[in-house]
Write a structure and sequence with these properties.
Length: 162
């Protein structure tokens, strides 16, 4: 009977130590994003990037400048994000009506997102989509074929003016 208690005590100690280490790992790999309001986000809500779940919400609290949402993002994910990463609350029609958080990497050439960073989020999913469209327009404007076509039109216009 004494051996059973020793085994149970050892399991409890190891379990407690493992849980403590897991909590420390999550705390050291979290970032805080501030939104105007929580928009239905709750602890456990997923964080998505390019259609892949890359993290989850650890907790929320009211702050002077909005609602702070603490997210767990592993080191590998944070290294793909920058300090200009864009976080948005997606109201969630594609996920059955439940809101989710979405993130875009941010501008290249800026430092990677550090653990325990504090960033501003965007509550407007329409603004998020507008950012997508503006990126596509910029990519289109820089297409070599389009640039060549513009040059030809300019040359044609110059010839007509002569």
């Amino acid at each position: 009977m004494k051996k059973i208690w020793l085994v149970l005590l050892a399991v409890a100690v190891l379990g407690g130590a493992g849980f403590g280490l897991w909590q420390l790992y999550q705390r050291n790999n979290s970032v805080t994003v501030v939104f105007a309001d929580a928009g239905g986000i709750t602890p456990g809500t997923g964080v998505w990037m390019a259609g892949i779940k890359v993290g989850r919400v650890l907790g929320l609290q009211v702050a002077g400048d909005g609602v702070e949402i603490r997210l767990f993002l592993g080191k590998e994910v944070r290294q793909q994000l920058t300090e200009t990463a864009l976080f948005v609350i997606d109201p969630g029609p594609a996920q059955g009506g439940r809101p989710v958080l979405r993130v875009k990497a941010g501008a290249g050439g800026t430092p990677p997102l550090a653990a325990n960073s504090r960033l501003r989020g965007v509550n407007s999913f329409a603004l998020w989509q507008l950012d997508d469209y503006s990126q596509k327009v910029l990519e289109f404007m820089n297409e070599p074929q389009l640039q060549e076509g513009i040059k030809r039109l300019e040359q044609f216009g110059n010839e007509l003016r002569k």
